Amino acid sequence: MYSRILRYLAFSFPLLLILPISAFANTCNSFATFNCAQATPNLVHVGGGIASGQSVGILLTSNMFSISTANGVGGSDVIIIAAFANSALMGSLNGSAFSGLSSFPEGAATNAIISSLQGLGLCGSTCNLSFGYVDLRSALAPNGSVNVTASGVPAGTVFYGVVLGSNGQIKYITPNSEAAIMGRTAVVPEPGSLTLLGTGLLGLAGMVRRRYLSV
How far is CA 58 from CA 61, 72, 83, 117, 175, in A? Predict the structure, then answer.
């Protein structure tokens, strides 16, 4: 009898260790024209910020971030899926606007998103999420990364990366700990904006000089 109990415990204990891991792992849900592969490991990393101290692990400190994979494997395309807090879809990524979604493509992520936004004070007790995505149409090179610039995206927007395989199916998704939240950031100006600013300052200086000489 004791030997049967020991065999049962020996069989059950590894399952108890596995269950919590699988319970908190995100799952891939097909969306738009993109279908999930048979296996979609949580290997995508959103870089460019600091530790948030929340379930969604990265807090962005600027309007720029990057996408890479933990194992260095590349992909044929990168898609950014996003959750907007108490807001309609706004802004763009690398110049492309968001397309709307009725649900978030990573299962088990929405609770982590809401609790993280509330923990950072970016969402109140009412935290309604809107979902969208941008197809960057950029291949991810092996051991490389894809750089992303957000424009007009509100604070509290959450980004997860999706990497496609050569067959166009979703190959890798993002765990909550490697996803990123747009903080209240200072936007990095585009070169054209800097040129306009410089031209305006030069014009102002010329006006001041002419008025000074006319006195």
Answer: 9, 19, 14, 11, 11
State how far the Cα of 161 lies from the Cα of 44, in Å rounded to an integer.
6
Indicate the pTM of the whole model: 0.77
In 3D space, the residue among 86, 91, 85, 146 whose CA is nearest the CA of residue 116 turns out to be: 85
**10 Å Cβ neighbour count for 215?**
4
Find all residues with CB under 8 Å of 209, minimum gap 6, and list them. Answer: none
Q: Is the dihedral of CA 36, 37, 42, 44 positive or negative?
A: negative
Kindly report the length of the chain: 215
> Looking at residue 63, what is its pLDDT?
97
- What is the DSSP annotation of 148-215? EEEESPPTT-EEEEEEE-TTSSEEEB--GGG-EEE-S-PPPPPHHHHHHHHHHHHHHHHHHHHHHHH-
Q: What is the pLDDT of residue 195?
A: 53
| For the chain, the helix, strand and coil percentages under 3-state DSSP, each to the nearest 5 | 30, 30, 40
3-state DSSP call for residue 18? helix
Residue extents of the structural domains in the chain: 28-188
Q: In this predicted model, which residue has the larger pLDDT, 25 or 161?
A: 161
SS3 5: helix
pLDDT tens-digit map of 162-181: 999 999 999 999 999 999 99
